[in-house]
From TrEMBL, chain A:
<feature type="transmembrane region" description="Helical">
    <location>
        <begin position="235"/>
        <end position="261"/>
    </location>
</feature>
<feature type="transmembrane region" description="Helical">
    <location>
        <begin position="99"/>
        <end position="122"/>
    </location>
</feature>
<feature type="domain" description="ABC transmembrane type-1">
    <location>
        <begin position="95"/>
        <end position="300"/>
    </location>
</feature>
<keyword id="KW-1133">Transmembrane helix</keyword>
<keyword id="KW-0472">Membrane</keyword>
<comment type="similarity">
    <text>Belongs to the binding-protein-dependent transport system permease family.</text>
</comment>
<keyword id="KW-0813">Transport</keyword>
TrEMBL record, chain B:
<dbReference type="InterPro" id="IPR039424">
    <property type="entry name" value="SBP_5"/>
</dbReference>
<feature type="domain" description="Solute-binding protein family 5">
    <location>
        <begin position="65"/>
        <end position="420"/>
    </location>
</feature>
<dbReference type="Pfam" id="PF00496">
    <property type="entry name" value="SBP_bac_5"/>
</dbReference>
<protein>
    <submittedName>
        <fullName>Peptide/nickel transport system substrate-binding protein</fullName>
    </submittedName>
</protein>
<dbReference type="GO" id="GO:1904680">
    <property type="term" value="F:peptide transmembrane transporter activity"/>
</dbReference>
<dbReference type="InterPro" id="IPR030678">
    <property type="entry name" value="Peptide/Ni-bd"/>
</dbReference>
<comment type="similarity">
    <text>Belongs to the bacterial solute-binding protein 5 family.</text>
</comment>
UniProtKB/TrEMBL annotation, chain C:
<feature type="transmembrane region" description="Helical">
    <location>
        <begin position="158"/>
        <end position="183"/>
    </location>
</feature>
<dbReference type="GO" id="GO:0055085">
    <property type="term" value="P:transmembrane transport"/>
</dbReference>
<comment type="similarity">
    <text>Belongs to the binding-protein-dependent transport system permease family.</text>
</comment>
<keyword id="KW-1003">Cell membrane</keyword>
<keyword id="KW-0812">Transmembrane</keyword>
<feature type="transmembrane region" description="Helical">
    <location>
        <begin position="134"/>
        <end position="152"/>
    </location>
</feature>
<keyword id="KW-0472">Membrane</keyword>
Length: 314, 502, 293
């Protein structure tokens, strides 16, 4: 197990390098000139040339890349073209925000999605199953922005219950921080809950028909015990993979949710950075999310081993 | 006893004032860029500067220039020397004194800082001479009618020389100016917080302890924040939300027609892509202009809240040429023009438009209107950075763009219409127009300038390198607790005299 | 229902050939048939749009901008006075294509790569998995804008972009499932008796991989339909004034206060199609599941 994790961590380094090269090249393919946007109405060629030089955009591509990666090794991620802030400072500012959103959303997703999935699998073909499905699918097919704006109009404007948008750091005011994040986390969570519910249902259906569940039933165990102890435990394998995959959906979903609720997190940072062609910021974010993905995938694979006794043996 | 009572009253009063002193929350449409007046370029950045950095001169809502840090000024006879008297007793947020040396430093920085985006705005200045602690003489190469208006904007914002010297190009991370509020902190895309500067020369007019700017790009969400009372003032309320805002009991609305314009820039001479029917043929451009019902456009997309337009200046501007009123839509005349130019079967125009809802809506309306005159418009939506590059590189046929506008008319026309002008993406070049616009720039007599602009307009309405469509109206939404707010056509939010009564 | 408890039917199911058995099970699946009906309904509408007696989806009317539903416009009009009903019907084409084609692209790449990674393991797995991670880590937006610049704006290229960005999830899902199945006793015995790899893959691995992949595919259809909307605003998807449900919704969000019908109808349409595909997926899943009798 430890050897496995160690091997994976070793492979992670080239993976991250691969990702950084990939995104670096992809960015070069983007149309649009960041300097032109930065220069604004000042189109003095000398100024534009100076800015290009200052941000190293005149160097050949490999030089640009190695300068950047060299900086990264020393902990310097460059500075934002738009605000001149150091990228590392920006990332540190934004990371906790998105983590808070993601964790709260995941809680919503698991609390709604997993029980609903178990219930609809156990009660397959009944009204309960259909209802759970319809609710889950609405969660999936209602676009985030629609649900988000509707919630803002209803909960904040009409009832005045929660802050309409924005972000408050937990250190500043914990209660307000959580209440501000409730609606966005719910919006992000519902879409994930739908995915989670559907997969839980599918996995549970498979397991419920398997021999050991039949055996457990035959032994006369209580149904609740059969379902939770035997069936659900085995259905967990695909559910855990999926939760790791959901990390990707979380990040993608956070992009939209953060836009709607004006939450200054990773998602909003990356969108604005891409649109402003703020290369250093985009690179920094990608590096960060790449590490996140790798860690999540590693955890998911480790969970396979932990949850699947047969794999553990071999 | 009486004394004791009054003392208590004073103390109570003091606490009451202390308790009243509040934070004003303003929601902006987007996040500002770097907060260095010499380096920044965004419109919202200028809104923040209004509270952060005082300028040499300011404007009235009627666009008259009034003193701010300069209390008085005068020109020499041939208009090449500007002498300014400066306000005494002003200090920067870091305690450094404001004086003629500081002004000289600032002008020099705008001209020589390599990152400066102000160079063209102060290009006419050849030198400064400190003629007293509070008097400075600015020499020009030739008369420049635009200079004072530039001093009413970013080029006239005074930053602390000591702080600027220390921070260099990184000044924007921690700006130090002399405005009513000092920089406190900034979280990119979340907030910019300014706190009251106690030593401000006009501190009596300032009624807040702090002001927080929150960028909220989505129109609906920004408005929702106002409705729920989470913010006190919002920038750019959507025209389509106006009706609802006006009918709400706890919301006030203020508006002013902007100084800018929105229109379609046609590529008439910027590279190969200018070789198109619409690029080569003024008649086609005239036909397109005639095919558009500008009033209907305004009604459909903006509920009639904006101002239809056909020139670089809005119809309510003193610079607007009344001899060329907004043309009535005339589809037959448009078809006739096309036929005359040899396009009986119609023409196709590819228009690039920014990928945000309002421009898309505008272009689709124009598309439908033009189709009736036989002009097929193909809309290509592009995100802004791409569009900007394609436009400056001449890789477009027509482009839907706007301009936020400047106080001096020159800022709305010169760099767009003169040969080789800074933002002349259209590639338009006409020596006659060049001469007229250059004359208008170097003439300080208003009536004479107006004549030059009118003469240029006579040519431009025929050539139409830009087909103007409408002028945005700045609409601010305010909680009814906010009072003393004055709408300005430059779209700024000036906080002098504004107060919050809760 | 899916459980066929009636012994007589069960016998006939068991007697049939595998293909027939699957089809019979599917036919008897009531909710799956509802799914078929829903999907078919929208497909027919999309195909028949040109011959249906509806208004021109691009015809504007300045006197009826954001007009509420009425006899002339049963679903109301949009922000520039176009008939929402006819835009909805014409938009079905773009949206169904965006949903189905991009998922098909993702499946074509994702499933074989996932099987290869999971079954062969070792270097194959390492290379595929690491590339997957790279693709997952690249923000969708960058990918989309770069593709838009390269391929030029069109609905087809939007599908490619969406399909590519949905591929990693299928690779990961398939791989995970294959690893789990490959460790089962019957696969190990199949190895032991020397069954060729191809047979093991088709007979044992693939059928077990299919259920979760189908579920995910039907879910991704929904995401893809909605993703098309954001892409059309980047200049990659359906170009104005041609309609798609996604772009209709995207515009409608600015008028939720004033013209809720603009968001309502495309919202309902997306919901029904997504429901249809998911019910269909469920039915297929049950019918293909070898364990289910």
């Amino acid at each position: 197990m430890l050897a496995f994790i160690g091997r994976r961590l070793l492979v992670a380094i080239p993976t991250i390098l691969l990702i950084s090269v990939f995104v670096f090249l992809l960015q070069q393919l983007l149309p649009g000139d960041p300097i032109l946007a930065m220069a604004g109405e000042e189109r003095d060629p000398a100024t534009i040339e100076f800015l290009r030089e200052k941000y190293g955009l005149n160097d050949p591509l490999p030089v640009q890349y190695f300068k950047w990666i060299g900086g990264v090794i020393q902990g310097d991620l460059g500075i934002s073209l738009r605000t001149n802030q150091p990228v590392s400072e920006l990332l540190l500012q934004k990371l906790p925000v998105t983590i808070q959103l993601a964790v709260m959303a995941l809680i919503f997703a698991v609390v709604i999605g997993v029980p609903a999935g178990i219930l609809s699998a156990v009660k397959k073909g009944t009204v309960v199953d259909y209802a759970a499905n319809v609710v889950a699918l609405s969660g999936l097919s209602i676009p985030n922005f629609w649900l988000g704006i509707m919630l803002i109009l209803l909960v904040s404007v009409k009832w005045g219950l929660l802050p309409a948008s924005g972000y408050t750091p937990p250190g500043e005011d914990l209660v307000r921080s959580i209440t501000t994040m409730l609606m966005p986390a719910f919006v992000l969570g519902t879409a994930l809950a739908a995915t989670l519910m559907r997969h839980t249902r599918s996995a549970m259906l498979g397991v419920l028909k398997s021999d050991y569940v039949r055996t457990a039933r035959a032994k006369g165990l209580y149904e609740r015990r059969v379902i939770l102890r035997h069936a659900f435990r085995n259905a967990l394998v695909p559910i855990v993979t999926l939760t790791a995959l959901l990390f990707g959906e979380l990040v993608a979903g956070a992009v939209l949710t953060e836009q709607i609720f004006t939450i200054p997190g990773f998602g909003k940072l990356v969108v604005d950075a891409v649109f402003n062609r703020d290369y250093a910021v985009v690179q920094g974010i990608v590096l960060c999310t790449a590490v996140g993905f790798i860690v999540m995938n590693l955890l998911a694979d480790a969970a396979y081993f932990a949850l699947n006794p047969r794999l553990r043996k071999s | 006893m009486l004394r004791k009572l009054s003392l208590t009253a004073i103390l109570l009063g003091a606490t009451a004032v202390g308790a009243q002193a509040q934070d004003l929350r303003i929601a902006l449409q987007s996040d500002a860029d770097v907060l260095d007046p010499d380096q920044s370029r965004t419109f919202v950045g200028r809104i923040v500067y209004t509270a952060l950095c005082d300028k040499l001169v300011d404007i009235t809502p009627e666009l008259d220039l009034i003193p701010q840090l300069a209390t008085d000024w005068s020109w020499n006879d041939d208009q090449t020397e500007l002498t300014m008297q400066l306000r005494e007793g002003v200090t920067f947020h870091d305690g450094e004194p404001f004086n003629a040396e500081a002004v000289a430093y600032n002008i020099n920085r705008s001209q020589t800082l390599e990152e400066s985006r102000r160079k063209s705005e102060v290009a006419s200045i050849t030198g400064t001479e400190v003629t007293g602690e509070y008097e400075i003489k600015i020499s020009l190469a030739q008369p420049d009618a635009t200079l004072l208006a530039q001093f009413a904007d970013r080029a006239g914002m005074m930053i602390s020389p000591a702080a600027a010297e220390e921070a260099g190009a990184d000044f924007g991370l921690n700006p130090v100016c002399s405005g009513p509020f000092a920089f406190d902190n900034r979280v990119a895309q979340d907030r910019i917080v300014l706190t009251k500067f106690d030593d401000y020369w006009n501190a009596d007019e300032i009624n807040f302890d702090s002001v927080t700017y929150l960028p909220i790009p989505d129109n609906t969400v920004r408005f929702a924040n106002l409705q729920s009372g989470d913010v006190d003032i919002i920038d750019r309320l959507a025209a389509t939300d106006l009706e609802q805002a006006e009918s709400a009991s706890d919301i006030e609305v203020a508006s002013a027609v902007s100084l800018g314009y929105q229109g379609m820039t046609i590529n008439v001479g910027n590279g190969d892509r200018a070789d198109s029917p619409i690029g080569e043929n003024p008649a086609v451009r005239q036909a397109l202009s005639l095919a558009i019902d500008r009033n209907a456009l305004n009604q459909v997309v903006f509920n009639g809240a904006f101002a239809p337009g056909n020139q670089s200046f809005p119809p309510n501007s003193p610079w607007y040429d009344q001899d060329h009123p907004i043309p009535e839509r005339d589809v037959e005349a448009a078809k006739a023009l096309l036929a005359e130019a040899g396009f009986e079967d119609g023409v196709t125009v590819e228009v690039q438009a920014p990928n945000s809802p309002v421009p898309q809506q505008v272009m689709q309306v124009v598309q439908a209107m033009a189709a009736e005159a036989g002009i097929t418009i193909e809309i290509t939506s592009k995100e802004f950075a791409t569009m900007l590059q394609d436009q400056s590189a001449g890789d477009y046929m027509a482009s839907q763009v706007g301009w936020s506008g400047r106080v001096d008319p020159d800022g709305n026309i010169h760099q767009f219409m003169t040969t080789g002008g800074g933002i002349n993406d259209s590639g338009y070049s006409n020596p006659e127009v060049d001469e007229l616009l250059n004359n208008a720039r170097t003439t300080t007599d208003t009536a004479e300038r107006k004549q030059y602009y009118d003469q240029a307009r006579d040519i431009l309405v025929e050539d139409l390198p830009i087909i103007y469509l409408y002028h945005q109206t700045w609409i601010w939404g305010l909680r009814d607790a906010v009072s003393g707010f004055t709408p300005y056509p430059d779209g700024m939010i000036r906080l002098e005299g504004v107060s919050l009564e809760d | 229902m899916a459980h066929v408890s009636d012994p007589a039917t069960a016998d006939s199911v068991l007697d049939a050939k595998p293909e027939n058995r699957v089809w019979k099970k599917f036919r008897s699946h009531r909710s799956a048939m509802l799914g078929v009906f829903l999907v078919a309904f929208f497909v027919i509408i999309a195909v028949a749009a040109p011959i249906l007696p509806i208004q021109d989806p691009t015809a504007t009317s300045w006197s009826a901008v954001r007009a509420a539903p009425s006899a002339a416009h049963p679903f109301g009009t949009d922000e520039i006075g176009r008939d929402v009903l006819s835009r909805l019907i014409w938009g079905a084409q773009a949206s169904l294509m965006a949903g189905v084609v991009s998922v098909a692209i993702a499946l074509c790449f994702g499933v074989p790569l996932g099987i290869a990674a999971g079954y062969f393991g070792g270097w194959t797995d390492t290379v595929i998995s690491r590339c997957t991670e790279a693709l997952l880590a690249a923000p969708f937006l960058i990918l989309a804008i770069a593709l838009a610049a390269f391929l030029g704006p069109s609905l087809g290229n939007a599908m490619i972009a969406i399909g590519l960005s949905a591929t990693p999830i299928f690779i990961r899902l398939t791989r995970g499932q294959v690893i789990a199945v490959a460790a089962e006793d019957y696969v190990e015995s199949a190895h032991a008796i020397g069954l060729p790899t191809r047979k093991i893959l088709t007979r044992y691995i693939f059928p077990n991989v299919l259920p979760p992949v189908l579920v995910q595919a039907t879910l991704t259809v929904a995401t893809a339909i909605i993703a098309e909307a954001s892409l059309s605003f980047l200049g990659l998807g359906q170009q104005p004034p041609a309609p798609s449900w996604g772009s209709m919704l995207n515009t409608a969000k600015n008028f939720l206060n004033q013209a809720p019908w603009m968001a309502l109808w495309p919202g309902i349409a997306i919901f029904l199609v997504v429901l249809g595909f998911n019910l269909l997926g469920d039915g297929l899943r049950d019918a293909l599941d070898p364990r289910e009798t």
